[in-house]
């Protein structure tokens, strides 16, 4: 599932390519991927343009010239591809937005969605999300985590605790902080809390720099998206050697959540 770095990579790319261009055609091939009748959705979007693209947690928000918004959550299996009819992927597209010769294809939205919302509806939809990682300070983080008792991995992926982190980057953050992902938050010392907080931003920024770990290209000739796969520290590296100490990376499951970690240098 795309996490903060993937959605930020998508946001940056799309912001450079589709802002302020008229949406010339809208095609809906799966009504369950949207939240209004098909014709109403088309009438609300076609002929308008996108004034800005923002990210909130694992969502993208396409602000329309009408003041309404398209809220995207790709969920598990969701992808986007910007191209033309000539290089469009041979995949089922649930929604297509056309910008003259350009097509923005939303693929794999069986669990994901693209919802049309006014400002109030958008605020309500996002209301329960926790703070953005880049907008927290150490004091806020310490206050929030000091109230928690569960393991670090489930806590870091809890969108109500902190927004945008999922399975991949929670493991990477715990590795950077030298903490076992199944350690209890209530057992952390002040120094360990600080280490965990200080690991979040560099891990996420490094992942953004490398285009995230989702390796489906955003456009023809895309050589950046997914490059973090070649730079992961522990995620999906079970049986390989730790870059820091040389020990074998292990996989552990806790509360139905799998984690990858180094049992030697993560305590």
Automatic annotation (TrEMBL):
Gene3D superfamilies: 1.10.8.50, MutM-like, N-terminal (3.20.190.10). Keywords: DNA damage, DNA repair, DNA-binding, Glycosidase, Hydrolase, Lyase, Metal-binding, Multifunctional enzyme, Zinc, Zinc-finger. Its cofactor is Zn(2+). Residues 233-267 form the FPG-type domain. Transmembrane segments: none annotated. Residues 2-135 form the Formamidopyrimidine-DNA glycosylase catalytic domain. Belongs to the FPG family. This is Formamidopyrimidine-DNA glycosylase. It comes from Fictibacillus barbaricus.
